[in-house]
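Subject: Sanity check before I submit

Could someone independently write out the structure tokens for this chain? I want to compare against mine line by line before I put it in a report. The sequence has 139 residues.
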Amino acid sequence: MNEQVSKALTDLLEKASNGIDSTVAFSHANLPEVIHQLLAWKMTKGIILSVVGLVLIAIAIFMPIWAKRAKSNGAIWTHHNGEKKYNINSTMYDFSRTIFPALILFFGAVIAIGGFSMWLKILLAPKLYLIEYAASLIK
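---
Independent answer below. Compare away.
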């Protein structure tokens, strides 16, 4: 009985050892391809974020110009003539000339800087990026 248990345990340990060895061999063979795909994915993500950030910055720059043109063309949402002696600018017009562009500009700059730093770091120092990425996974 003891011999059967010992033989079964030995077989299980040999199978586990062989499985670990084959997994390590597979990992070593595919590791460069995995790293290449990771860097390509992160660089693409960084470029997309950079483009989104730049588009938001462009929207923030052109939004006040668009609102001014709308007011000069007599758009209804740009002014209120409730009483004849008052010409009060509407809240939406004021926001589209000041607050909305400032918020969009801020978020666009943050997104663009994050995207630029990601793909520029991959382009210039991919090993450093991989070390930082691995460290963030460990945390």
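---
OP: Matches mine. For the report I'm noting this point. The mean pLDDT is 83.
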